[in-house]
Amino acid sequence: MKALSTKERRQLRTRRRLQRPVDSGRLRLSVFRSAKHIYAQIINQNEGRTVVEANSKSLGLAGKKTEQAREVGKMLAERALVAGVKTVIFDRGSYRYHGRVKALAEGAREGGLDF
C-alpha cells in the first residue's frame, strides 16, 4: 500500500471534518490555488453541481495575488447572494489558512457570506 504524502493527509483530514456539516444541507465553498490564479466555487454536495464560481483568470484582475484573491472572494459572495446562498462551509482543501486562501475567505465574508 502506498504511503500518503503530507499534502494528501492534510487534504483528507480537512475533507473528513467537513462531512458532518455538509450532510446538514449547507453548501461547500471550495478553493483551488495555482501559481498564477485562484479559483473558488460553491458546490451543492447533495446534487453534485456547482452553484456559483469565480476566479482571478476570468475576472482579469491586476495587482498583487492576495488582492486578487480578496476580489475573487467578494465577487463570489455577490454571485452567491444573487443565487440565494448565504451560509457555506469553507473547504480550503490541502492549503493552509494563510495568504491568498485567507484573503479569499475574508473577501467572501466582506461580501456577505457567513461561514
Overall tally of domains: 1
Number of strands: 4
- How large a portion of the residues is in β-strands, by DSSP E? 15-25%
Describe the largest sheet: 4 strands, mixed
- Helix % is 40-55%
Low-confidence stretches: none
Order of helices and strands: HEEEHHEH
Give the structural class. alpha+beta
CATH architecture: 2-Layer Sandwich
Explain what the structure shows.
The chain has helices spanning about 5-25, 55-60, 65-85, 100-110, and strands spanning about 25-35, 40-45, 50-55, 90. Strands 3-2-1-4 form a 4-stranded mixed β-sheet, sandwiched between helices. It is built from 4 helices and 4 strands, in the order αβββααβα. The relative contact order is 0.20. The protein has a single domain (about 5-110), classed as Nucleotidyltransferase, domain 5, CATH 3.30.420. It is of the alpha+beta class and about 120 residues long. The radius of gyration is 14 Å and the shape is globular.
Question: Which SSEs are present, and which pair or pack?
Answer:
Layout: H1 6-23, E1 27-33, E2 38-44, E3 49-55, H2 56-59, H3 65-83, E4 88-91, H4 100-111
Quick overview of this protein structure:
This protein has about 120 residues and is α+β, with helices and mostly antiparallel strands.
Features:
single chain, 4-stranded mixed sheet, 4 helices, 115 residues, alpha+beta, 46% helix, globular, Nucleotidyltransferase, domain 5
